[in-house]
Amino acid sequence: MKTVCVLLLCLVSLAHAADGLPANASTSTADAQRGRKLLLNRQETGCVLCHVVSGLQEGGDIGPSLVGVAQRMSPEALRQRIADPRLSNPQTIMPAYFSSKGLHNVAKPFKGKTILTEQGLEDIMAYLLQPPSQ
Q1: pLDDT tens across 18-44, in order?
Q2: Which of 38, 74, 118, 121 makes a 20 to 30 Å CA pair with 18?
Q3: For residue 13, pLDDT beyond 50
Q4: Could you give the CA distance from residue 72 to residue 127 in angstroms, rounded to a whole number?
């Protein structure tokens, strides 16, 4: 049993190393329902201001629809796009949800902080990577 746990931790580390994000325990405790709440929260993340999200009747049309995103993007690419979309598109207007590097004019209470926690990022990933509902 101990060997299986060590192997699983190694696989999680490799998955995060491949997308450039640090491995963390949040992956194993990711919760799709918490992720849904974060996606739908206009004040905390603002995702629905720019994207259509499964489970919500209305959403923004500035960014691409997030409905079926798991069929269009790999988990690694999706995680990186949420964490710091500037890496794939330096001109993007999408916020870097899990990076504080290169940001200017940040209010003092928020300097060095990310919009999402590691757990929040993994919760959103869990929701977006769910199989489509029937």
Answers
A1: 445 555 555 688 999 999 999 988 888
A2: 38
A3: no
A4: 15
Residue 74: CATH number of its domain: 1.10.760.10
Query: What sign does the dihedral 47-53-57-62 (CA atoms) show?
Result: positive
Number of Cβ within a 10 Å radius of residue 69: 17
What is the number of domains present in the chain?
A: 1
Q: Could you tell me which of 26, 123, 128 has the C-alpha nearest to residue 74?
A: 128
pTM, whole model, 2 decimals?
0.77
Range of the domain at 86: 30-128
Strands (E), 1-134: none
